[in-house]
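Thread: quick sanity check before group meeting

JM: Hey all, I'm pulling together slides for Thursday and realized we never actually wrote out the predicted structure for the chain we discussed last week. Dropping the sequence here so it's in one place. If anyone has concerns about the input, flag it before I start.
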Amino acid sequence: MAESTDPYPKYLDWLRYFSAFLLFTYGLSKLFGRQFTLPPEMALRPVGSLSGYQLAWFYYSYSHVYAVILGLIQLAGGALLLVRKTALLGAALMLPVMTNILMINVFFFIAWGALFTSAFILTSMFAVLWHDRHALLGVFWTHQPGEPASVRRYYRITAALVVLLVVMLLGFASWLAGSKVSK
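JM (edit): ok, ran it. Output follows.
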């Protein structure tokens, strides 16, 4: 992969370091059981009386292994961000993780601090990736071979059939579910 011809901006260093600090903080809090925990009496309340935050935390607290894995991923991403040579890999690793965390924070109304923190980290990951966008574009698009012209039509028809099959299966499943409800 070709290195970026742009000099590495100082603000990216600070974004990486601060994001790594935040990822370490959140990752360790998951490993030490400080996140995804609710008081046991929450289990006695009716589900309809729980807030989005309580429902999300109740759901995620079910699996300690999940919290540990997520915490380890956050620690690994933070460690990769600390070194300029591995920052691109760290940003690529954390992009889907932080997108998911941001969506949870937005749609389950977790907390304003968590929302702003996850948005900051996600924005920082985009900034790191944007700096090397030409190299990434080469790896994921420009340097990827397309289908040979002689079989391109076959591949496009196959892709269309896959999409059509999925749509038909979803339609059939919806029809089945609707017919069971009406009985």
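AS: nice. The longest helix spans residues 152-182. The chain has two domains: 10-142, 147-183.
JM: adding both to the slides.
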